[in-house]
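Honest question from a wet-lab person: if I give you the sequences of every part of a complex, can you actually get the arrangement of the whole thing, not just the pieces? Trying it with mine:
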Amino acid sequence: MQMSTERNPENTRFKILKAAFAEMHQHGFQGMRVDQVLSRTGLKKGALYHHFPSKQALGYAVLEELIEKRIRELWIDPLADFDDPLEGIYVLYERIGDVWSDEFFALGCPLNKLAQEMSPIDGGFRERIGRFFRLWQKAVSQALLQGQSRGIVKPEIQPDDCALFVVAAIEGALGMTKILGDKAVYERGKGELKRYLESLRLDIESMTNDSWEEE
Amino acid sequence: MQMSTERNPENTRFKILKAAFAEMHQHGFQGMRVDQVLSRTGLKKGALYHHFPSKQALGYAVLEELIEKRIRELWIDPLADFDDPLEGIYVLYERIGDVWSDEFFALGCPLNKLAQEMSPIDGGFRERIGRFFRLWQKAVSQALLQGQSRGIVKPEIQPDDCALFVVAAIEGALGMTKILGDKAVYERGKGELKRYLESLRLDIESMTNDSWEEE
DNA sequence: CCAATAACAAACCAACTGGTCTGTCTGTGG
DNA sequence: CCACAGACAGACCAGTTGGTTTGTTATTGG
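Yes, you can. This is the full assembly:
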């Protein structure tokens, strides 16, 4: 039975994480200042260095517990809900446009930002980010593979390559949106992503066997 | 008649620019240390602050005189050499794979890196980078438009949107290549880019009027 | 109820960082 | 040939930064 104004270690830790995320999203990991994170939370150095051994460890925690978690929830896990992976990818892309605020688009994808900044100079970040992108790619690839076995996706395409391109296109679109400073840029990418996805679809005419669900 | 070991202001300035670019490419602008740039060149503080009023001004100079210049030479200017813009975009993508070294791929696109890092926190960078990406997009868009008038590109597509997607896909592919740490990733994106580009091509069957060059 | 420990606060510090200031040398126009 | 400005060197500095140390308070197991 903890009182809200009194000590609550888990909540304190999470508050630090959120503040650190906000700072990293804006200034990058190197640009993030520990003092700034603290002033956001009202806490002091003692609190931060009690929960995290170093700034680097704090960065890793933000990456794994906030950034990767959110992307998994938004891009990876929901893929399994769709029978048609091509529709699934498109709908997820569309959904992000509704969920994210304009300010969030202006700051861009935090994972990509961290990747661009830290991959070349910190092995810990590089490994974690690389591992996660491989996971993401594999999830898309698996969905496409399943789409092939269901007679939705062309059998001659390479799911791995297509998944790579899809993830690249998503990150690229988010990047362009951030750079050009207009959420409409993201929306305009939607149609082109659809065009690419439809080019992966097995058209009815070229089908020899009959196998589809309802749609 | 300057001796190579003696004073040569233009050369000195360029040496600083190149060193600063290398540092920025690896550590980012904020991560770049003035002292490190200097030790790369063998020069001292006096030299740098004689040629550049501040670290920020040095960053702007690197962006405009090295980064944007190179991208213009590699991605924008050569577009005009192709009668078929779809082939042109593809060939340029292909050409980069041959020109850039593995180490350069590992460091990724310096413009995107700078954009991700500095856009949210520095108006000077934001404006310059935004302006340049608009230039790039417009160049691709113009090429596609010309392709339409030549009966190569489907008349119903929006050149602006497609150009946006092309640039996004290129940057995305470079980003994925950097993150996954394998130049092969870039090569594997080639085929998917081609698939997208071909989806923009006006197929012969659907043509009503006869208008093509040689090919 | 009482140590023992977890959860913080507050002051402090050494290293670093961009930038300045003064001085020196080199090339050059008159 | 010589004054003068451009091109740099080298020492110096104030502010910042991540991290530490010590002290204080709340929480909890026995």
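Two things worth pointing out. Residues 141 and 158 of chain A are 9 Å apart (CA to CA). The two ends of chain A are 52 Å apart (CA to CA).
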